Q: What sequence folds into this?
């Protein structure tokens, strides 16, 4: 039997937590002991950020403000897509995804 | 023995440090320190071994507090910066004031949105002072053009004076356990009631250490020609209190404009006070001719100090924290401009020289003799 959409969603949610890689930009590496990459398990970008809040609190404070909101001038990409063009911090993650945190472009 | 004059210069692109031997003939400049982001507040903490502090307003990664323990040869981030409790719902936008507290390591910090934080360990950890941060008025304050900022913290024993734009002057007389609005006589040009209980756009408050009952305010003036409800509100921009900030009266008569940002008191004479009158529309000195104005009688009369300053075609602004005065026997004034010049006014402002003329836009200048 082919599962209906809600079943698919449930199966996906219930599935094993995907392990993904977070790429840390140079200016933020001092806040995570110099690591350029972090490997964590999370179903969504939000869950990945929550993991950072617990495991890398200094790094997390640079990425999100006190309310938990992603800082305005940072962009987060899942692979090559900005999460703003996906489902924001609710964007789902798959095994092997690469999450990149980057400062927004500035100039002038 | 204190023998160096040290300046901290907060700019749009980090903090600079300049120092000179006491004659102040020439200053050596170091910096910029920090990641090239705006610095709105600095502190030269002379308790014990001198420490320098600077806020660092990083638009990408949030607020930081920088600390130097080697007199400005290097700066490092403190272990944490002020932050609202998660359940508060507010997020830090900027750090506007850093002041020394009691003991050797206590610091006070005023932030945007207007709130007060206190550190007991030299800036490594911070607690919000809820008496003012959660004050019944706090959610009614409105941001001015510079943001909703707590820019002035003045401590005098158990008294704490706070300046908030736009909130007004708040006073605690129990060491910060409680605060109340204390704005009697402070006008507002942008509210139907010309003298509201709170909500004034106070730009800066100053006081002399030896005369704690005497305070001065540079308020948001420039309302002499107001034609809206309530009518004109002349001379509400420069004020004085002689009762520890319980009431205020205008001392703006004789100034070319009652609008301005900084206000500074002479270190050895509580009657001598300095302001920089600005045209309200352009935030530049009248006629494009910069001048500091000094009163030597507590604001009863004013004189213009401009020897050495440009005589025309200068349209910079001197921001609220961009002027200070040192504490030498014959003190010198210092101001920084939004066009990146740092000026010294020798002999109490009688003669002006440009120390540095191409810094980034300057937001904060502090001086100490260490």
A:
């Amino acid at each position: 039997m082919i599962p209906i959409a809600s079943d698919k969603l449930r199966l996906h949610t219930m599935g094993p937590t995907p392990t993904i890689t977070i790429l840390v930009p140079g200016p933020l590496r001092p806040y995570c002991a110099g690591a350029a990459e972090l490997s964590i398990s999370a179903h969504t970008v939000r869950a990945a950020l929550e993991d950072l809040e617990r495991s890398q609190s200094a790094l997390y404070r640079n990425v999100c403000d006190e309310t938990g909101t992603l800082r305005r001038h940072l962009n987060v990409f899942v692979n090559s897509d900005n999460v703003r063009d996906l489902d924001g911090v609710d964007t789902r993650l798959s095994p092997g995804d690469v999450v990149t945190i980057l400062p927004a472009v500035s100039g002038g | 023995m204190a023998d160096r004059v040290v300046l901290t210069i907060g700019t749009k692109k980090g903090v600079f440090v300049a120092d000179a031997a006491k004659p102040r003939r020439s200053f050596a400049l170091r910096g910029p320190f920090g990641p090239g982001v705006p610095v709105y507040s600095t502190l030269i903490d002379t308790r014990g071994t001198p420490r320098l502090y600077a806020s660092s307003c990083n638009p990408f990664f949030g607020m930081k507090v920088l600390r130097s323990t080697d007199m400005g040869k290097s700066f490092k981030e403190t272990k944490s910066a002020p932050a609202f409790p998660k359940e508060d719902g507010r997020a830090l936008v900027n750090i506007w004031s850093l002041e020394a507290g009691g003991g050797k390591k206590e610091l006070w910090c005023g932030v945007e949105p207007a709130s007060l934080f206190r550190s007991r360990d030299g800036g490594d950890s911070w607690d919000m002072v809820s008496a003012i941060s959660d004050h019944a008025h706090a959610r009614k304050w409105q941001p001015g053009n510079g943001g909703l900022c707590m820019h002035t913290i003045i401590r005098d024993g158990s008294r704490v004076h706070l300046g908030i734009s736009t909130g007004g002057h708040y006073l605690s007389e129990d060491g910060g356990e409680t605060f109340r609005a204390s704005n009697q006589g402070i006008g507002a040009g942008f509210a139907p009631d010309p003298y509201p209980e709170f909500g004034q756009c106070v730009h800066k408050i100053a006081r002399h250490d030896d005369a704690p009952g005497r305070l001065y305010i540079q308020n948001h003036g420039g309302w002499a020609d107001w034609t809206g409800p309530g009518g004109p509100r002349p001379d509400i921009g420069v004020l004085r209190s002689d009762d520890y900030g319980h009431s205020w009266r205008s001392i703006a008569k004789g100034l070319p404009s009652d609008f301005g940002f900084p206000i500074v008191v002479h270190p050895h004479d509580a009657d001598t006070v300095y302001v920089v009158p600005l045209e309200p529309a352009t935030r530049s000195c009248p006629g494009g001719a910069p001048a500091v104005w000094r009163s030597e009688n507590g604001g009863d009369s004013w004189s213009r100090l401009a020897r050495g300053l440009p005589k025309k075609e200068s349209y910079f602004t001197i921001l609220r924290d961009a002027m200070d005065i040192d504490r030498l026997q014959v003190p010198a004034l210092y101001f920084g401009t939004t066009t990146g010049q740092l000026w010294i006014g020798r002999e109490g402002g009688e003669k002006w020289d440009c120390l540095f003329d191409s810094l980034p836009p300057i937001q904060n200048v502090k001086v100490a003799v260490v």
Q: What stands out?
A: The CA atoms of residues 146 and 165 of chain B lie 8 Å apart. Chain B has one domain: 28-315. Chain B has a mean pLDDT of 96.
